[in-house]
Amino acid sequence: MAVTALLCGPASGAARAVTVEKSVSHPANVRYFELTYRVSIDNLPIRFHTARIWIPIASSDVHQEVWLERVSGSVPWRITRDREYGDRMLYAEIRNPRVLRVQFKLKYIVSRREYSKGSYRELLRYNNDPVSPELIPKRCLEPDRLISIDGEMKILADQVTRGKQGPVEIAHAVYNYLFRTLRYDKSGTGWGRGDAFWACQAKRGNCTDFHSAFIGMMRAEKIPARFVIGFALPENISQGVIPGYHCWAEFYVGGVGWVPVDISEAWLDKKRYGYYFGTVDPNRVRMSVGRDITLVPRQAGPSVNYFVYPYVEVDGEPFHHVGEKFNFRNLPAGTQKVRPATEE
């Protein structure tokens, strides 16, 4: 069966028709939903030369199928991809001082599967499997601006993992330490930046802080680890507003590949402590991977700490009058496929 949907063109912003294919397939461990990502950039200066806008775009992978059903924007746009992590983004450039407000709306259809590589006991069988160096990006073993892997972070990692061998044992020791030592607490200041050393000192924070500490300690032990960020959906609510981002981490095991952990969710739902080592639920969508992101085209400012919200520059300086709103709505069983927008 085929119907027609509208998809905005990458350069002109004009609407064009594409073919939509529908099929019925909806396993029990899959969540199927519509995601709407709205951006409003207000109060642009009356006199400016250039405003540049980057908005993250979700991509499909082995755990989620993402269809960008519609993009509408008040200025021309195109889709690009970062070369280090493969993250997609919408890019727009304004050279018109008369434009003082810009809006975008991105509407997705998402099919997200439970992502499981097995329990701790099941993963132990791979603990001594070799890792092919060519499969691991060097970046996943290096420090980030806010994720140190030497000095006091290395000392702590050595203490926490003393006597452990192999990536699974080491990862579980770090997971257990952070679960029992940190608390999910967004009071005061300092939290949310993903500063691994700060999180270990303050012993609190949000998902960004939990998983930055995990990544720092894993890399300090020379085990590849990476940062994943997107949005979490309430499990038992069919539609509503998404208040903010959610992130988790992955580490690499030979013979298995990337293994997910979600320590902050385990802390908030302690009965699922075992579940969130090796598995993440389908109530989420991944928007990007990595830290210290270099956008495409390259931004004038420093690398972006993590990329889940829009980033805007006006005449080469970061611009913060940016509003975002995220909504979701559960959809019935089925898969709706829409031709993706053009990208570089």
Q: Assign the structural class, choosing from mainly alpha, mainly beta, alpha/beta, alpha+beta, or little secondary structure.
A: alpha+beta
> How far apart are the termini?
31 Å
How do the strands line up in the largest sheet?
Answer: 5-8-3-20-13
Would you tell me which CATH topology of the largest domain applies?
C8orf32 fold
Radius of gyration from the CA trace?
21 Å
Count of DSSP H/I helices: 6
Beta fraction? 35-45%
Helix content: 10-25%
H/E element string? EEEEEEEEEHHHEHEHEEEEHEEEEEE
The CATH architecture of the largest domain comes to Roll
> Total domains, how many?
2
Q: What global shape is seen?
A: globular
What does the secondary structure layout of this molecule look like, with pairings?
Layout: E1 2-8, E2 15-23, E3 30-41, E4 51-57, E5 64-73, E6 78-81, E7 88-94, E8 102-113, E9 115-116, H1 120-123, H2 152-160, H3 166-181, E10 183-184, H4 196-202, E11 204-205, H5 207-220, E12 225-232, E13 239-241, E14 245-253, E15 257-261, H6 263-268, E16 279-280, E17 284-289, E18 311-314, E19 317-318, E20 322-330, E21 335-338
Parallel strand pairs: 10-11
Antiparallel strand pairs: 1-2, 2-21, 3-8, 3-20, 4-7, 4-18, 5-8, 6-7, 9-16, 12-14, 12-17, 13-20, 14-15, 18-19
